[in-house]
Amino acid sequence: MAKAQVGEYRTDFAVGVNGGYMLSKVSFTPDVPQNMLGGMTAGLTFRYNCEKYFKSLCAIVAEVNIAQTGWKEKIEGMENQPLYYADDPDNALHYERKITYLQIPIFARLGWGRERKGLQGFFQVGPQIAFMLSEKTTTNLVPGYAPTEARASNIVNQETMPVEKKFDYGIAGGAGIEFSMPKVGHFLLEGRYYYGLGNIFGNSKSDYFGKSNFGQIVIKATYLFDIVKTKNDKIK
Predict the structure, then answer these.
(1) pLDDT over 90 (residue 45)
(2) What is the pLDDT of residue 44?
(3) Rounded to an integer, what distance in angstroms lies between the CA atom of residue 188 and that of residue 186?
């Protein structure tokens, strides 16, 4: 008795490089007014296409990236306060903490369109873990000077607290397009969002912050070249 074949198996493996720009903030409780902090991200990408199910191409994607994330405070209510400027009294008040991580996302991916030559759209989602490598603070606030008027927010503990939890984890997902050329490779452009499930500071009842998790928006370009390709002349 013949059996109907629903899925078409693939054994395509590709590797490559990626790079992009990341906008980050940290969700604090109690709240800290912020602007998005910009930073770079770059690394290696690995992709294994395992099956085509009806018109959906199924794959597993993993990355190993160096990423600059953190937060940038929105300081209002203290304009024209030269006692608070460390160097340039004409410059606006600012505080930012840039934190560098080794990030490892792993995605389940679905693609629709051409595999070997032409355009394909895709969606991917999965877990992400990260390990902190370093942190750096940039500010022109001068410690020890009292303002002549109050800051818009009186939550300032985070400005002197080092990152307590070096391991971060959460969920990432995104969508994009891929253009493939035979004997050249695959060119991808993607938008992605990451929601952190961990906190950078302690969140017990005795700690100051109840929540301090990341939110990140990433625009990323990737180039992949094939290492192993499924032998099938019908694949387009």
Answers:
(1) yes
(2) 98
(3) 7
What SS3 state is found at 84?
Answer: helix
How many angstroms separate the CA atoms of 81 and 140, rounded? 11
Rounded average pLDDT over 65-91: 67
Determine contact, residues 16/222, Cβ cutoff 8 Å: yes
Q: Where are the alpha helices (H) located in 131-224, listed in sequence order?
A: none
Contact, 163 vs 37, CB < 8 A? no
Q: Is the pLDDT of residue 126 over 70?
A: yes
From 51-55, 142-146, 201-205, 220-224, the region with the lowest mean pLDDT:
142-146
Q: What is the DSSP string of 174-193?
A: EEEEEEEETTTEEEEEEEEE
Per-residue pLDDT tens digits for 178-188: 999 988 999 99
Within 10 Å of residue 65's Cβ, how many Cβ atoms?
23
| Residue of 206, 117, 201 whose CA lies nearest to 166 | 201
Q: Residue-wise over 139-161: b if at least 16 C-beta within 10 A, else e?
A: bbbeeeeeeeeebebebeebeee
Q: Which residues pair with 46 in a beta bridge?
A: 15, 62
DSSP 8-state assignment for residue 235? -
Residue 72 and residue 211: Cα distance in Å, rounded?
17
> One-letter amino acid identity for 212?
S
